[in-house]
Amino acid sequence: MFYPMFALVLLTFLVMLVNVTWRIRAVKKRQVSAKYFRVFEGEGVPEYIKAGTRHYANLFELPVLFYAACITTMVLQAQQSPVLQGLAWAFVAFRVVHAFIHMTYNNVLHRMLSFMGGMGVVMIMWIVLAVHYASRSL
Questions:
Q1: What dihedral angle (degrees, nearest 10) is formed by the CA atoms of 15, 16, 17, 19?
Q2: In whole angstroms, what is the distance from residue 84 CA to residue 126 CA?
Q3: Distance from C-alpha of 98 to C-alpha of 118, rounded to nearest angstrom
Q4: What is the Cβ-side half-sphere exposure of residue 113, based on CA atoms within 13 angstroms?
Q5: For residues 135 and 138, what is the distance between their CA atoms, to the nearest angstrom?
Q6: Per residue, what are the HEC states of 65-114?
Q7: What angle do CA 111, 72, 57 make, to 5 degrees?
Q8: pLDDT for position 72
Q9: CATH class as words, domain 2-137
């Protein structure tokens, strides 16, 4: 379970680095004032800056449930489960697709489908964990 978590951490850092690059470039090109980044409020901010910022924040929302599921899997010593391993990697794949969509062409329907896919995977992970824990407790 460590490797899927590590992959998602790498994605988070990648999104952060892309955002920093975009912000610096936008300020240099005078597309946005550096003052905007004090409180992230203002007019005329390019959409790609807003989308990148929103996506970075999004990597600290639903993925929290994923990280918790992975750590719970390790604590319960259920990490040998090929089902949980596959689900973990599926979640990472959905998040990579979601990041690509959100930070490139940003089609809302495509983004929603990738988000819902990831959400469904995390729900299934928690159900599998609950069943595993219940069977262990009996």
A1: 80
A2: 9
A3: 9
A4: 7
A5: 5
A6: HHHHHHHHHHHCCCCCCHHHHHHHHHHHHHHHHHHHHHHCCCCHHHHHHH
A7: 35
A8: 93
A9: mainly alpha
Residue 35 and residue 42 in contact, taking contact as beta carbons nearer than 8 Å: yes
Instruction: State which amino acid sits at residue 88.
Output: A
pLDDT at 138: 58
> What mean pLDDT do residues 18-29 have?
92
Amino acid at 117: G
Distance, C-alpha 101 to centroid of its chain: 12
Six-digit token string for 64 = 């929290």
Task: Give residue for tokens 């936008």.
Answer: 26
Task: Scan for tokens 């449930």, then name that residue.
Answer: 65
Q: Which two tokens stand for residue 7?
A: 């992959």
Q: Are the beta carbons of 55 and 103 closer than 8 angstroms?
A: yes
Instruction: Give the residue extent of every domain in the chain.
Output: 2-137
- Which residues, in sequence order, are CB contacts of 37 under 8 Å at separation 6+? 23
The DSSP 8-state label assigned to residue 45 in this structure reads: -
Structure token digits, residue 82: 């090929």
Amino acid at position 72, single letter: T
Q: Do 54 and 111 form a contact (C-beta atoms < 8 A)?
A: no
Whether 137 has a pLDDT exceeding 70, the answer reads no
